[in-house]
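The following block was generated as part of the benchmark described in Methods. Ligand: 2'-monophosphoadenosine-5'-diphosphate.
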Amino acid sequence: MKLLPSGSATVCGIIGQPVSHSLSPWMHQQFAQQLGLDFLYVPFPVAKANLATALRGMQALGLRGCNVTIPHKENLLPLLSDITPRAKAIGAVNTLVFGDSGILGDNTDGIGFERALRRHGVPLQGPSLIIGAGGAARAILQALGECGATPIYLANRTVQRAQHLATQFPHLPLVALPLEATVLSALLPEIQLLVNTTSRGLQGENHPEIHLEQLPSSCVLCDIVYNPLPTPLLGAAAARGLHCVDGLGMLVEQGAESFRIWTGQMPETAAVEDLLREWLSHPNSQP
Ligand code: ATR
């Protein structure tokens, strides 16, 4: 029997600041254990000023790749040798691959969102409403664009930001709107998929502009915030009888795709997602 991880383990990690809250080290070790792979995933807190040095160091140390989180997802684009078309469309990277010819940047957030929704039985065509116009919204637009969802409404507190984002996805049937109850009320009855991509909900806040009773009963509600669980928005939508999807599926699927890129093997995701949900719903029982 080989003791894992061994001295010849494939090493990956995550860079960001902070990274201490990240669930990725646990998640990737679960994937490796499940597949019996000799693999180690390490959290690296890296300040902006040290980003270039850290990347060179990771290459020198022979890391296979790493995930990237706040605040580096966009900052490190100029330091890369190449980026994939989907990372280019999103304008940010969350996955790096270290190779002989340099560093490749990829982004698995969009495909993670798509796979999570498909696994939860959500059709990705039909009128969608995205709340927010930040980095997470960009990843979801990239995914919905690939799936042919139409039309896509993009509502943001700062409407100019939604308008600007719409100009960056000119091939999509996008409509930018202010996040206002009167504006949303007119379109809620036709929405089949509503996604909150904003951080609102992290502190238990509600979404007063969204009158859930106006949504059709066939609408699916997705909140990419996964702490607390359920978020107030998902709790209210579930009480209204809507099909709800929290952000854990997207978290696990984006991680699984990074893991696949680095190791060539796709892990099972549903059990890992269930474990995380169990733990986040009962935070005293850490897995
Ligand atoms: P991320 O990369 O995680 O998407 P971001 O780029 O900082 O984060 O974007 C955060 C998004 O959440 C923005 O759309 C922001 O709205 P503004 O563009 O108006 O700032 C939105 N957001 C954050 N807090 C919010 C709140 N309390 N109410 C409504 N929208 C909020």
